[in-house]
Amino acid sequence: MKLNDFLSDRQSDKMHWGEAISLWNIARFKILGLTISEIFLAQAKDRDLIKSLNQGVELLIVPHIEKIQKLMHVEGLEVPTVPQRKNLDVVGKNIEPNTLIQDDEIANNIREVYRFGLTLGMRGVTDSTRDDVRELIWQILSEDCRGFDAMIKLHRQKNWLIPPPTV
User: Fold this and answer.
1) Looking at the domain assignment, is residue 8 inside a domain?
2) Cα–Cα distance measured from residue 156 to residue 13, given in angstroms and rounded to the nearest whole number
3) Which of 6, 30, 36, 86 is deepest in the core (most CB within 10 A)?
4) What integer is the mean pLDDT of 105-117?
5) How confident is the model at residue 8 (pLDDT cuts 50, 70, 90)?
6) Cα–Cα–Cα angle for 30, 21, 64, rounded to 5 degrees
7) DSSP reduced 3-state for 26
8) What tens digit of pLDDT does each residue of 135-156 get?
């Protein structure tokens, strides 16, 4: 048996640092996104924006964090902690919305958050070689891309897009 064969057989079973770091970074970013989304939910007034934010939390952020945590636990790795969700008591209450940030500002901030998350996902896919890790990150990236597409359509409908400079 050649040394390369021995090393590749042994290494194929274990998650390498690039994969672990990618999963960690995506999970930490999703945890940050959870907090930001809940703060924005407390401030948003537009019903479509609120629905979009809620869907992002329930369909993308929370399930993705849980899937990453599950895989990392199986590998015996530490997982990023999710802080206690203290903002939940203000979501949906009758506080005065838009006192800190307007709906269009929320929309544009969320779009930038999404964009950065997509770059983390793409980097994670390209840094992963193990099938199960790559497939999980690809699934997260694909779902995030669909979420981003839906968000852009909402932003265009509401005229919330900030047009890029023309050339």
Assistant:
1) no
2) 46
3) 30
4) 92
5) low
6) 30
7) helix
8) 999 999 999 999 999 999 999 9
In a domain, residue 9? The reply is no
Rounded to a whole number, what is the largest CA-CA distance in the chain? 70
Percentage above 90 pLDDT, the chain: 67
Task: Provide the residue count of the chain.
Answer: 167
Identify whether 72 is part of a domain. yes
Q: Which residue has the tokens 């997509």?
A: 118
Q: Is the pTM of this model over 0.90?
A: no
Cα(first)–Cα(last) distance of the chain, in Å? Answer: 60
Domain that holds residue 98: 17-158
Query: Does residue 6 lie in a domain region?
Result: no
How many domains in the chain? 1
Mean pLDDT of all residues in 90-99: 59
Q: What is the DSSP string of 35-88?
A: HHHHHHHHH---HHHHHHHHHIIIIIIHHHHHHHHHHHHHTT---PPPPP-GGG
